[in-house]
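anyone else get weird line breaks when pasting these?? whatever heres mine. first is seq + tokens for prot A
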Amino acid sequence: MDETALARFHAKTLADDTGECIVWTAGRRGGGRAGDGPGQGYGQFWLDGTNCAAHRVAYEHWIGPIPDGMVIDHLCRIRTCVNPFHLEVVTPRENWRRGEQLSAVTIRDGKCQRGHALTPDNLYLHDGRKRCRACNLEHAKERKRRARSAD
């Protein structure tokens, strides 16, 4: 990144109240999570004729290249942070595993989305994905109940 681009980059950042995160204050890609409003997603920076993710630009400039197929995880969990020391290169799967979306949280908690224990005797494989037997049984009972009430 040349000096002009670096100056533009710095002009779009601000230290947060804690002094830890460096927050992107310019344009952002729309909300990333359900419930996020517009502009709550990842910072965007125009570099070399391309709209780039600001956190990736920061990582590549101050730390180094991002290998193909890898993504950047925000260790601080703040999507607008561009502090290179808060960023780590990980696989997409690891980034998902560390995330706060419902599927990752339930897996970490050892329970399905409805609270059933994810134990070997309660799991089965369907279309290459692990499924909860207790949930499947509840769905089957509900389908039968609806079929009876429709008659």
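and prot B, same format (seq, then tokens)
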Amino acid sequence: MRHDYQPLLTPTEIDDLRPTQMTVGMIEVERKRRAWRERCEQQGSEFLGRHMIPVVLGPRKRLWLLDHHHLILALHLEGERHVLTSVVSDLSRLGREEFYRFMDNRGWLHPFDASGERHGHHKIPKRIRKLADDPYRSLASAVRRSGGYAKNNVPFSEFLWADFFRRRISDRHLRHDFDKAIDEAMALANSREAKHLPGWAGIEE
């Protein structure tokens, strides 16, 4: 997901950021943790300075994450306390229900659990550390990195891919052999069955 950022960057405590989704892929989070440990001593400050975290200013001046949930959780688990945020939209004047409705209509909320079931907005965790694991979200990231589909600007597009794989690859298979599941998912991603999904990179017949 890409946004047009305001130039003003503000150091923000990670624990003050409100998620806009219910799950992450913990395999993907662990991958980002390893990458952070490899670069933090020599490139940590430069890396954080380059990653502007897009947020919405909501009711009671709370900051809601629009992207980079996996990175933020990885940094939090590695003991980092602050990131630089940039306000994409100031919705602080709205009431809570109006705010949720606006966010939902813009595609800025994803209140779906690890089974792909939708819930009320109040079920979204209030802290990044409370996000649940969805292994299909990790699978979707792995497939994209392997070239199974293209990176794109559609909000929560990797969750669309995760749900596509969820309906076609068994949970037992996924947890037993993740690498084999990636191979199976790559074939599915290139099939015409996935043509409706954002970033589809299959071949037209």
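btw re prot B: The mean pLDDT is 92. The chain has two domains: 10-113, 135-194.
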